[in-house]
Structures are given as C-alpha cells and as structure tokens.
Amino acid sequence: MSYWFRNDSRMPQARLKVMSFGIMAMMALLLSGFWKLQVVDSDHYAQLAERNSIRTIPIIAPRGNMLDREGRVLVDSYPSFSVLLLRDDAALLERSLPLVADGLNISMDELRQQVDAARALPKFQPIVVKPEASKADIAFIESHRADLPVLEMLMVHRRRYLPGGFLSHVSGYVGEVSEQQVENSNGRLRPGDIVGKTGLERQYNDILMGADGQRRMIVNSVGKKVEDLTETHAVAGKPIQLTIDYDLQVAAEQALGDRKGSIVALDPRTGEVLAMVSHPAPDPNEFAVRIPREEWQRLNEDDDRPLLNRAIQAQLAPGSVFKIVMATAMLESKAVPKTMTAFCPGYAEFYGRQFKCHVYGKGGHGVVDFHKAIVQSCDVFFYNVGKQLGIDRISYYATHLGLGRRTGIDLPSEEPGLVPSEEWVQRVYHRKWYAGETISVAVGQGAVTTTPLQLARMIGGVAMGGVFKEPHLLLHAKSVAEDRFPLSEDTTERVTQAMWGVVNEGGTAASARLEGVEFSGKSGSAQVIGYSTRDRVGKQKRFKDNAWFVGYAPRRNPEIVVAVLVEAGEHGGAVGGPLARDVVKTYYEKKARKEQGQYTAEFKRYDPGSSEKGIPLAEAQPAIKSEDATPEHRVRAERANEQR
Amino acid sequence: MKESQGIREYDWWLLALVLTVCAIGVIEIYSATHTSNQFAGMHIKQLRWIFIGTVLMFALSRFDYHKILDQAPILYLVGIVALVAVLAIGRTRFGAKRWIPVLGQFLQVSELVKLIIIIVLARFLSEVRTDRLSLADLLKAGVLCGVPLALILLQPDLGTALVLVPMLVVGVFLAGIQWKHALAIVLVGMMMLPLGWHVMKPYQKERITTFLHPEDDPKGSGYQLLQSKIAVGSGGFYGKGLGNGSQNQLGFVPVRYSDFILAALAEEFGFVGVFVTLMLYMGLLLRLVQNGRRANDRAGMFLVMGVAAALSFHVLVNVAMVIGFMPVTGIPLPLMSYGGSATLFVFLSLGLVMNVRIRRFVN
Known about the structure:
Chain A is α+β, with helices and mostly antiparallel strands. Chain A is 37% helix and 18% strand. In chain A, the strands form seven sheets. In chain A, strands 2, 3, 4, 5 and 10 form a five-stranded mixed beta sheet that branches. A five-stranded antiparallel beta sheet of chain A has the order 12-11-21-20-19, sandwiched between helices. In chain A, strands 1-8-9 form a three-stranded antiparallel beta sheet. Chain B is mainly alpha-helical. Chain B is built from 14 helices and three strands. Chain B has helices at residues 12-33, 42-62, 65-70, 72-89, 109-127, 135-153, 158-174, 179-199, 202-212, 221-235, 246-249, 261-293, 298-322, 340-357, and strands at residues 91-93, 96-102, 105-108. A three-stranded antiparallel beta sheet of chain B has the order 1-2-3. At the A-B interface, helix 1 and helix 2 of A face helix 3, helix 5, helix 7, helix 10 and helix 11 of B.
C-alpha cells in the first residue's frame, strides 16, 4: 500500500522559507497594532477607561408576605432606604469620608472602621454604611449628588410584623445571613443577604426569599451616570398562607394576656394549627433593622426566656393531663380491670413512702371509680393504676400517643419532651428504675415532660379514637402525615365521657363550662419542685405549680383542641380552663356567624392591651390590608415575571 | 522499516513553548474570573483540559503518521458523517448547532474536522508527485475542503469554516500552485464577494459593518471591539498589574476569559506582556515550520504545515480582532483561551507534529 510517500523527500525549501517570513511579518504587524494602542495612543484609551467604570447597585427583592388562613396579612414588608458607600475610586473615597461622616451623623471612627472592614471585598462592591436612612440623610444625599458621588441610596424592604410580639414565635424574624449559612448554601446566599433566623421565616425561607437583582450603569470619573447598562430584575419572594386563624390568634393572645405561658389551638381533624401563642414574646420589629448587641443579650439572659417558643420548646411536667395517657393505657392494655375502684383518704402509701393527693388536708375523694378519678383528678386512683401497669407499659402508651418525641410541626427547633422508661434510666443515669418513680410518673410528675403542642395533639388524637394528624402551619400542605394508634370504641367513649365530666359535671375545670358546646378537657397542676423541697424553701412565686388545661369540643371527633400552659398559674382547671374556653368560644361564635352568612373576614387591629409595654396603639403603624399591602411589590414581581 | 521513537526525539523545546503559553493563559483566566461567582474555578478546568491534551498529544504521536494517512479516506468519511449528524441531531447552544454530547461533555465536531482535513490534505497533496500543481489537482483539493466547509457554514460557524481556507492555501502553495492559477482564484474570489455578502447571516453582516464603522454602534457589536481596544490601550507599556485591570475586572472586556483573553492580558501586563506572549507564539510557529522542513518526507511536511497554517490563522484572526484590525469572528486564541474542544484540537494537532518529528530520521 503505502507507495505514495516512499523516497519522496523533495522539500519546497523556498516556499517553506516564505512561510517563516510570513509568520514573522504577521507578528510584526500585530505588534505594531499593540504599539499604536498601548504606547502611542495609550493616554487616550486610559482616559476612556477612566470614564468607563461600572456601578452595580443591587435591587433588593421583597420577601413574600405571610397570610392567615383567610388571606389577611400577618407579616409584610415596607420599603425603606439604606445608604451605600461606593468604593471604586479610593482617592475620591478618602477625600469624601469626613464630609460623609458629618452629613450622615456617623462618627469618623465608626465610618473608618466600616471601610477598613470591607478592604477584602472587590472595590466595585458598595458597602452599606447606614441601614436605615432618615429623612435628613436622604435630603443630605440628594443635595450633595454633585460633590459626594460616593454616596448612593438603596431601596430595601424591611420586614413588618404585627406590633407587641403578636404571633412572633410563629413568624420568627429575619436577620443578616451568618457566615456559616453562606458557606452551606452552595453559592445561593451571599454575605449581607437577609434570611429567616427563626420560626416560619426560617422554615420556609426558600419560598419567602426572592432573588435580588442588580442595576449596572456606566458612570464617569465624577460618578455621574453616563448610561444604564443592564438591569437584572429582582424576583419577589412568594407569599405563604398559614393555617393560623387571625381571629383565634387574637383571642388566644388576649386570653393569655401578660401571663407567662402558651396557648396552642389545633384542628385535630387536619392537624392545622389555628393559633399559637407564647408569652412573653419579643417584638421582632425591633430587630428588623439591626438588633443592638445589648438588646440581644438582654433577651437571651432574661429569666422569663422571651425567645423560647413555649408551645414547642417548653418541656415541663404535664401533671394531671398525663392521666389521660394513664386512663387510655389502663383501658387498652386491660392489665387493670375497668371496674377498678380505689379509696382516697387524701394520700396513699407505696414502698414505705407517702404520696399525697391534690386534696390532701381537705379530706379525700372517698371511693373513686374510673370516671370520678378523671373528673375529680384523683391522684390516689392513678397511683394505683400506675403501680399495676408498671413503667414500661406507661412508657409504651405515652410514646404511642405522641409524647417524648417531636410532633414534626413545620417549625425549627421543636423539643421532644421526655417519657422515662427503665431503658432510659439505665442509659442516662446508669442505674436501675426505682419503683417509686412509677408512682410519680402516673400523675405526670417525675421525669416525664411534654410541650403544650404535644398535649394538644395527644388529647385531640385520643378524642378522635386514635388518629393523630401531624400539626402544621402551612395551609394547603400537600400531604399531612398521620399516626394511627387505634383505640377501642369503649376506651374512647369512656375517656371522652370523663373529660366531658371534668368541665360539665362539676369537675376540676367546672369554671370553663360553655353553654351549648360539648366542651371537654383535662386540667393539670404540675409541681415544679417536690413537696419536701417546697417545705424547705417556703412558698415562692417561682416555685408555684404550672397550670395546664387541654380542652376540646365537641366531645367526640373534635373540631378544635386548645392546650393552655400558664407557668406558675397554680390551678390548671381554674386558671387554664377559662383561657381555653375563651378560644373555643371565639371559634364557635365565628362558626355560627359563618353559618348564618354574616361573617366576612375583617381585620380589626390586635390590641396588645394596656398592660403591655409594647408600642402604644396611637403610634402603631397604620393597619396593613392585603389589598394595599405594598403595591410596588406586586408591580415589581409582575415585571420580573414578564422578563422571564 | 525501523522506527526511531526515542524520548529524545520529541521536540521538547516546542512543548516548553506550548506549556509556557498555556500557563500564561491559565493565569489570565484566573485573573479574569476569580471575582465572579459564575465563572470561578474556570482556570482549574482549563488546567484539566491542558493535562488531558498533553496526554492525548503523546498518545497520538505513537501511531506512525503513515498509518494514519493510510486511513485518510475513512477519516474523511467519518468527518463528513459527523458534520451531517451534528446538523441533524446536534445540540443548539448560543444559537448555533455545533455540539454533540460525548462522554458527558459537549464536543465541538468542527474542531475534530479541522484535524481530519489536515490529514486528508496531506495525503492528497503528497500523492501529487510533481513540483507543479495541475489545475485538476487544484480543483480536487478545493472540493475536498469545500464540502466540509459548506457543512460547517450551515451550522452556522463562519469562524471555524474560515480556518479550512488557510490550510488549503498553505497546502497548495507548498505543493507548487502555479501563479496563473492563484491569480485566477483571487479574481474569481473578488467577483464572488458580493454574492457571499448576500448569503451571510444578519449578525455576520452586522459584525462586518460595525467593524468598518464602529462609531455607528458603540453599544452593539462595535461595543465589544471598542471595549477591547480601551482595555488594551489603557494597559499602556507596563500594564496595570495582575488582577488590577479595571476593564477586565469590571467586565468591560467581553468574554475576557476566552476570545478576548489577550485584551485582558494586554491591560494587566501592558505592551511588555503582549510582546513576550507574541514572541512565544512566533517561536512556536517558527518551530513548527522548522519541523516541517526537517520532516522525513513530503507527507510529514504537509501534515506539520497544515497544523502551522491552522494555528497561525487562529493567532492572526484572534489577535487582530483584539486590537480592532478585524471584525469579531469568535475564533479563540489557541492555548490561551478557555475551552475544552479548542484546547484538545491544538494538542492533538501538536500530536501530529510530534509524530512526524520523532520519525524524521527513519528511512
């Protein structure tokens, strides 16, 4: 084959030489071009380059609003201005600093510090020197456009929450993204971005947060805009609609008032959270701009722990509310006969120790059967039940009714509470379970702790015959998880009859009776410290019993369940009961008006009440209505959508 | 036939020049992209392409180029089929069908075709055993190039299609084209120009008109040329220093990590930097010509000179564009511009050169 190349080594030497010269000539030509541009005309182009500087001004995307289940605005944003300092011209910046400090009322040191801190950032990235510009600042910048080109204003969107800490534990609040979050975001977040820090702001940050745009313009050497280059539109965040019912939330906030504690209202049929209150509550509007360090420290160190969302984070002994777990365990396990009775002289003795009933010193309950034991909340009866069931059976039923584990609500940092067991004691304390501990656990004392939300879910689920819907705050959640732990009809009937009796047969929560509604429930007054310790330290406010009440209506297949916790409230039935009743009453009144066709979702302003030290109503911002919330958001969002 | 394939026979000077130019490219890609989220890390990717290219270059040099030339007809067929395939099933990116997915990457088929045409032309021209190229052979060579050229034009990719022209021109020149034929072709070409204008795409026409009259349209295509000139000119004699080129860093220089990378370099390293870089290119190209002269046979010479022609044309068109001597064509600067397919093409063609080089004493 390869005949065609053999012995053919005649090279066109002359023409190859021409090629070499050609290459050299080409390079000479190209170099002459560079010489002309870079040496001869260099000054001309340097001037053009000088004129060519780009200013990049971010366009901040507004976050999505939060709406209640009827579309009323709970959280929105309002436009405000930040002052930007442009740093592309170092010499100009240096010259301008004293005037800037003077005009914006910032100390020279502070300004210098901010500029130094941004040294590492690219020069064309402006820094925010004042997050919230006052009218005077805006006037100053506008009037000095010509001689202070280093200043620029940036429209931002500040979060606006309802005043007085209304709903604040649910909504959460936003803040500047932390370095760690930036690192973990795969480039989606940039330093300086505003993200949700707690609550739903954090949980649904990806939905609520929009994408910032930017405007690039060419400016000349004195900072005057020569022309617009490109504009990337901001894409507004999407709103979320909550399961919260504003009317019920108001009722719950007002019911709890300035007491320390929590109220949670659920629809047990769906798991929708209708109201969630935790007091004391910080006002997130105060951190909307930038939270001062001292304020932050104060909130964190406050003994009342205002940053704690008690509805999902308070892990406290449930007291007698736990008897519903005991009653269910007793009937379902059949380890104890249904007909069991006990004699209550006001106390009982187990393992050589005296355990008091809550009526100790005022006589006893006498002969007590299952129904009476719940209605009157007899401890002695349940001590005996507990002794016969044993801790492992109690633990089994408590866990299956949803205690000792997170409910899975769509809020960050939910606490699981604790259901003790022999295994737990062995693992944590490396010791054996003491039989006497079972007696305490039987009445919801000892190591057992729960959150208000867990109790609401538990009572609601029991009254539903053992169907537990996952509590959630986002309306129209795609699929709601549920736990099924089917209870026999007999158990459900007996337990709910007894809970009806608690309210309606002169039981511990007789004061919570509601005409025309099958309002039922179970109270609890949980000791914070043991009787012996209390005897030693004497009566002090901080050691008063926590008051619990979990009420629901109607008796079977309830529509609403309300858990109330009042810390140091002492009497579950008398203190907690009426608060739950108020919320349930509001629910039924609203339902009645709806059925009569008289109800329209109205937005009456929440009144934090005179006892609150929040913003006085007269000074509060004008009411936000969903229609006129922030029209510019919508226009911007629409424009952004058209662009895509 | 005994083969001499000793390690010492490779053109290590050529490789040193190549890798030095690549290194300058990587540094400038880094400088042009490190502040951008979108493009960060490109220099690492480019390093990977250079590494892969070097390996492929050595691999290709191992197959005797005579055996490769034996397969020229089949290669040619494969090239044509691939070009047709890309028109039929190729992926459209940036408004043109040029890419087909290969091993999870998008390869630009026309880069591969360039390589094939170099081989096919070398085979064809080395079979012409006279010192004067007959008109028939000239026309045959023209058709050989014309078919793939037309297919590439259909993608449309004017830049790459044009690269085939200097390969043909250099080839027939070295094969002994007759002056009267050359003159005739030039004349016919001049007469065809208006027709060519007629079939050009609007964006191509726009590039040419704005090249001729940049002041008419400082924001459109002319804007790119103007910005490139501003970046180059403002760099001055010594440049602004690595990472300090405001035109580069602020993004005034268009596609500063690829087609206009020399503008970015010119701004940051000045005339001095450009001079050094262009001298490296000149050294590289002259080294190629020298390898052509010393080839064992005409076939080897044509192979090497085909590569030299292609690379020279790339450098010429790209650099001329950067300084505003030529319109924007989208031809990258070989070895410096960011890009996988383009980098692999250069290294593979250098593989052909090495192939010829290590067999130069064989006979």
